[in-house]
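=== RUN LOG ===
request id: a7f3
mode: sequence -> structure
chains: 1
length: 261
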Amino acid sequence: MKTQLTLNVSSRAQTGRGASRRLRKVNRIPAILYGKHAEPEKLSIEGPEFVRLLKTVSGRALLIELKREDKPEKALTFLQEIQRDPMTDRYLHIDLHEVKADEKFEIRVPIHLSGESFGVKNQSGVLEMNTHTLRIRCLPGDLPEVIEVDVTPLKVGETIKIGELKAVNGVEFLDGKGQPVVSCVEPVAEIVVEAPVAAAAPVEGAAAPAVGPDGKPLPAPAAGAAPAGDAKAAAAPAAGDKKAPAGQAAAAAKPAAPAKK
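=== RESULT ===
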């Protein structure tokens, strides 16, 4: 038989939320033991002892032998379910499943990957776990602590399925043969998002763009053309200037006579 642990438990008569809260206040955890050959039995477990047990289990499938104060016979069990408070992380309740040494039973066993994938080592691939536990049937003496999966030959784009796993003596895989276990996939391309360019701040002292009556900017003047305001200023005489005499105006308009030789 594989590694086996021991856990001391006590029977409890009271049930309900109030009784469970009282147990937790004295650092004990309410539990229940059930199986095919006996009625469910209500138990309590010392908190620190259960924490030490979990550290020993460390993610493996192990059988636990229960020692009860009021019964001389021991019960062979495994951890079926552990309930914890999501806020305080305290243990709320434990379900234990009893098995018989000469009877096959069903259990979920963790998967352990071994080796270095060819796709990861040579093709920049990434391993992707499709499932973390496998459902099996076996005798207590044949229970594997983990299911070893060798990923050494796995290349990018390939998947190891349950039907391709190495057989384990005395163990029957209950999940579908086509169910994927682990895949080697291409790395996800990094997506670069460019930040929007902020509009340039206006230079101090620069003229604001011309805006029409409708609030829209007016088109820029053609190259070499003077702004509308400057053209008007050049056409209009300065304030206070007198009109030039007609003779002077005519002389300015008449071309100069050619010089005599």
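=== NOTES ===
The helical segments are 17-25, 47-57, 118-122, 228-235, 246-253.
Confidence is low (pLDDT under 50) at residues 231-254.
=== END ===
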